[in-house]
Specification:
By secondary structure, the chain is α/β, with parallel strands linked by helices. It has 7 helices and 15 strands. It is globular.
Length: 304
């Protein structure tokens, strides 16, 4: 008797509750649910609370908070060049954007780059807004008009080449984008050309051992200059009316591998101007999302 019961349990477990034995017509039939159909979009494969939207013949992926309340601040998020987190999905995973949206009621829009998946982020003297800046403004308007976005609370976060795009928005449309959080990428183009009409919150995050985007900057293949971090921060110190005095925070843990960081804050600024250096950090460390999100939301809140 014990052997029979044991055999039955093994069979039920091994075959997903399908009966053992002769398998005659009286055997119970179990209808397995059909496989989930995953539909690929122009933005890639979507998850819950994601949409692929189109505007001006361009696409962007929209991440909405799981529980949306009233109007939402808008965040424009820009990925890096392939293969370095060069898709909306890779940037979402790297920065933990779903959790950021859920905990802050953010609408997070991730535009898709042009045909080469890069951004027109070069800041030029007396230049009109680039096509990507124009796209960003159109996305803001769409989210305000159709998705209860708050047009008075708009910020941007970018990684690597995407950070350069965030800098361009800070330089060219600070009346629309109030705060920029740049990760591992400096201002690209003419520093004197970056002359926003109003001050803008800036926070830069970078690893000291980043060899992909050197702190000293470089000349890009296009011939355009990627400025050093020192020169980039000096330009925004001037823009935001800061003194040369700074306060450096105590070291705090920021990555899963126990790397630590310190934040330098310029003093006397009209708008907060800061940079955080990760000691020994490479181009895209495995950031601890709660600490990363604390840095991001603190900067955005001070801009709103």
């Amino acid at each position: 008797m014990k052997k029979t019961i044991l055999t039955t349990i093994v069979c039920l477990s091994a075959f997903g509750l399908t009966a053992c034995g002769g398998g005659g017509n009286d055997s119970p039939q179990i209808n397995n649910p059909p496989p989930v159909q995953v539909t690929a979009t122009a933005c890639g494969v979507l998850k819950a609370n994601e949409q692929c939207l189109q505007i001006n013949n361009r696409h962007f992926m929209l991440i909405s908070p799981a529980t949306k309340t009233a109007t939402s601040p808008i965040v424009l998020a820009f990925y890096g060049s392939p293969p370095s987190y060069g898709t909306p999905q890779e940037l979402e995973s790297f920065l933990g954007l779903h959790a950021l949206a859920d905990s802050n009621n953010y609408l997070i829009a991730l535009p898709l780059g042009g045909l080469d998946w890069t951004w027109e982020s070069n800041v030029q003297e007396a230049g009109n807004p680039s096509s990507d800046t124009a796209l960003s403004l159109a996305i803001i308007d769409k989210l305000v008009n159709e998705h209860q976005g708050d047009g008075s609370k708009v910020a941007t976060v970018g990684f690597s080449a995407g950070a350069m795009m965030s800098y361009q928005l800070a330089c060219q449309v600070p009346h629309r984008v109030k705060a920029a959080f740049a990760v591992s990428g400096q201002l690209r183009g003419s520093l004197p050309a970056c002359k926003p009409s109003v001050p803008v919150v800036l926070h830069h995050l970078h690893g000291t051992a980043d060899t992909d985007m050197a702190l000293a900057g470089r000349v890009a293949l296009s011939g355009n200059v990627i400025n050093s971090l020192d020169n980039t921060m000096e330009r925004f110190r001037q823009i935001n009316g800061c003194s040369t005095d700074t306060i450096v925070s105590e070291a705090f843990k920021i990555t899963a591998k126990d790397l630590t960081a310190k934040t330098t804050s310029f003093q006397g600024c009209i708008k907060p101007t800061q940079f955080t250096m990760v000691e020994g950090g490479d181009h895209h460390p495995n950031y601890l999302k709660p600490m990363l999100h604390q840095l991001i939301t603190s900067s955005f809140s001070s801009g709103f």
